[in-house]
Amino acid sequence: MSLVTPAQAETLIEQHLTCLPIESLPLTQSAGAVLRENIYAERDQPPFDRVAMDGIAIASACVPAGARHLRVTGTQAAGDPPQQLADPGTCIEIMTGAMLPRGCDAVVPVEQLQRDGDLVQFDKPVQPWQNVHRRGSDCRQGALLLAAGTRLSAPEVAIAAGAGMARLRVSAQPMIVVISTGNELVEPGEVIEPHQVRRSNAYGITASLRQHGFARVADDHVRDDEAELTERLGFHLRTHDVLILSGGVSMGKLDLVPRVLEKLGVGLVFHHVAQRPGKPMWFGVSQAGPAVFALPGNPVSTLVCLARYVLPALRAAMGQAPSAPPRIALTAPVEVRAPLAFYMPVKLKHDDWSRTSAEPCPTNGSGDFTSLAGTDGFIELPPGPNNYPKGFVARFYRW
Ligand code: AMP
Ligand code: MG
After folding, report:
1. Average pLDDT over the chain, rounded to whole?
2. Ligand 1 neighbours (beta carbon < 6 A)
């Protein structure tokens, strides 16, 4: 059995992935998508000298020292075209968001004014450009606002709208199918016999994909039967971009998945990774394009391999700029016995100085997924044998 290391597996997956096509989405549907074009400022921002307070607009140089009395000659709201100050001894009533009237260079807020009919009085000295958000002070027309590869969350969607973009060119969502395998598996809600097992992995995988913004996720279940596997996997290879399988990749007589995939023309890239849990993981790419992640069926292995390899690969295929997982320190020692990278589920802890550390939450092996309740993810420890002390820093992967 030839093993690759987790780092090699990651590189091999990256080398075999193709970028997903581009689609154009209306802004309202773009949250969570990955941008595939640069967005530039449509105009200076702000696009004009913008009034930043409700009050009066004045010409600061013409206001006499001491008590200030001015006559209000007009009112200008946000969205109104700019008025012209008639005479330096007058002022224009003004609203936040309005363009600064011509001939004015400062705004005195309404809170500092005493008003008597069309006369206003104020005492505080006035500085030129006070309470004015100057044209172009945030950015200049043509400035790069958002780069291709940015994942769009609320501020980025607002920025794109501010740049006048009604639709955005983003990565098309991959068509993913999650396929569980195994004769022993029974759907939640159906009657179960003592010798049978709930089909939990497909639900865990689908939940993770949805949580990470992948919306086009189909689901199937196939028995450990070569003819049925060949027919169903052949169909999914023709209709999806990514296949995520669980189970059937170990050394047992009924672990038929690798053989069937290779028979269907899916080229093996690696089988077996020097890691625990998740050693039997299989990855290949079909000549026609789809990538196939065949994950071991033990529920902890499935979720670990999903977060460690599949989610980052999907993000890369969407064109998202890569980001290394954070490094976090252990709150307690962890012993790693085998010469395999070891994934330890953890809960994140935050102290009063906002330092984050990882509390180990051991499981009873790769079948024990009940221990994962309340964990945030896992850290990757280097191969043993070794006893990694409290404070040891390792990469953290979120579920
Ligand atoms: P396999 O990788 O097919 O040998 O499965 C390893 C273990 O994981 C067996 O105990 C299976 O019953 C269990 N298993 C496989 N697939 C699932 C699944 N979808 N949900 C829950 N357990 C599973
Ligand atoms: Mg099985």
Report:
1. 96
2. 180, 182, 184-185, 197, 199-202, 246-248, 250, 252, 255, 296-299, 367
